[in-house]
Inverse folding.
């Protein structure tokens, strides 16, 4: 099937590539089908592109690239809803807020996207952990890691 995208133009995708958000994404509940598209030469940053709305895409990244100590427990209702049987089926992403200049960009660690790679079912969850916020600087973390 072909989809139109804001940043990639027209793309050919397969049904196997479609990620299903049965509950949608908070504030975008009507959008339930997305695809992950690469961003040029970035190997850890992607676009989570709506299949039905070419103007809706989120910049996402593997949070562990920027935040090595990031961790939380997935509660049973989430694992059941996503039909997760093993940790090996889980893929995590965080939504980035891209700034100009890019080094001022932030990551939302309070609301990660949890994806079951086995069935392509996903959900953005809200963590009630005080040390995770919606705007964590991704580059200050890297520079702190380099200093340490």
């Amino acid at each position: 099937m072909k989809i139109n995208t804001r940043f990639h133009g027209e793309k050919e995708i397969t049904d196997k590539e479609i990620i299903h958000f049965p509950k949608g994404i908070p504030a975008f509940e009507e959008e339930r089908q997305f695809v992950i598209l690469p961003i040029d030469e970035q190997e850890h940053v992607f676009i989570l592109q709506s299949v039905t709305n070419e103007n809706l895409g989120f910049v996402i990244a593997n949070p562990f690239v920027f935040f090595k100590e990031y961790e939380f427990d997935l509660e049973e209702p989430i694992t059941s809803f996503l039909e997760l049987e093993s940790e090996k089926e889980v893929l995590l992403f965080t939504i980035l807020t891209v700034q100009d200049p890019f080094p001022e960009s932030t990551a939302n660690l309070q609301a990660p996207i949890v994806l079951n790679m086995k069935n392509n079912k996903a959900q953005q969850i809200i963590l009630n952990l005080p040390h995770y916020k919606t705007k964590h600087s991704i580059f200050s973390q890297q520079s702190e890691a380099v200093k340490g």
